[in-house]
Write a structure and sequence with these properties.
Length: about 170
């Protein structure tokens, strides 16, 4: 077993606790408070390991088809990021906030359209180093090291009318 032995055989993996803690810190900053303990909604989970008041359990409950809450967490299936990024962006236009954990694949179309150069200026990126270990959804044990860089992408909720008036 090598250092980078992470294998994503399916999309069921759990977020490492250190990244959950960092996500909650980002949420607290977004809300303008010193600490916060839970997201309103985890929009795409396989198991409930992220502190959230409500959950859309993927794939049984499709978070892509539902409205999101005011403050959301999303660690999407990495091979389906584009759909979830677009949804988070569209939810931000409705005033909803989302902290996402995704691979830093800045060459992709969705990074360019919704994160790096969107028409709105309501997106913040926090770059992470590579080397985190996700958890096996079946037993909670650490998986191999994920060798690619990650990023937190924060979609800040805006009101379309306010945005149009400010341009």
């Amino acid at each position: 077993m090598g250092k980078y032995n992470y294998e994503m055989n399916d999309n069921r993996y759990l977020t490492p606790p250190v990244l959950i803690e960092n996500g909650l810190r980002l949420l607290a900053q977004l809300k303008g408070v010193s600490t916060i303990e839970k997201f309103d909604l985890d929009v795409c989970c396989s198991n409930h390991n992220v502190p959230a008041l409500e959950y859309y359990s993927y794939p049984e409950h499709d978070g892509l088809a539902e409205d999101w809450k005011d403050y959301n967490w999303c660690n999407p299936p990495f091979d389906q990021c584009s759909k979830w990024i677009k949804k988070a962006y569209n939810e931000s236009l409705k005033g909803r906030n989302t902290v996402m954990l995704i691979p830093a694949r800045t060459e992709t179309k969705y990074w360019h359209e919704y994160i790096l150069y969107p028409e709105t200026k309501n997106v913040e990126v926090v770059w992470l180093r590579k080397g985190y270990r996700f958890l096996n959804a079946d037993n909670g044990e650490e998986m191999g090291i994920f060798k690619n860089a990650l990023a937190f992408v924060i979609f800040k909720g805006i009101d379309k009318l306010e945005e149009a008036e400010s341009l």
